[in-house]
Amino acid sequence: MFAARKIGNLVRSAGASRQKHTLPELPYEYNALEPVISREIMSLHHSKHHATYVNNLNAAEEKLAQAQAKGDIQTIISLAPALKFNGGGHINHAIFWQNLSPKGGKPSDALVKAIEKDFGSLENMKNQLAAASVGVQGSGWGWLGYNKMMKKLQISTCQNQDPLEPTTGLVPLFGIDVWEHAYYLQYKNVRADYVKAIFDVANWEDISSRYEKAMK
Length: 216
Known about the structure:
Blueprint lengths: L1 H16 L21 H32 L2 H6 L1 H20 L9 H11 L2 H13 L5 E8 L4 E8 L4 H5 L2 E7 L6 H4 L3 H8 L5 H12 L1
Antiparallel strand pairs: 1-2, 1-3
Helix pairs in contact: 1-2, 2-4, 6-9
């Protein structure tokens, strides 16, 4: 009984001291990615959609801490979908903002070499990633990821807000958000045009850095 009470106290203490997730600031202005992505889309996407994922994730984690403190297994299990959806939304968008830049740039020599080894050329990789992203049914993400076990780059897709690494084991390098809120106000239902254009604002410095870290 004493041990159980002590564990419960520790859980409550951890919950009380848990820092809440916050909406990250963008490394550029809302209009910086124009004409590829409009100011209106960036503002809504970041300040409304991403903020909602953050707020809902904090709420779900608070409920989880309370359920853990009570030993309420049913509630703990019932919170899994909210944690996955909102946690994934927060993880995915935090990467997405960094993956984009008005400066664009070029991939590092190391990344170019890996892309050429695994896809034949940078253009082939772009075409395959674009096709996979456009082909996502409904809402989701297209990803360029790194497979640590096989030591190679791979393209994958995830439905909804499922985060890449927990879902597939791939380390996320470059993500393309193909939820309609990411492009519809500007590109309407022509997802392919949005996906093609987004490579013009791909932050290859960030993508290359993620690749180098994944290699370690």
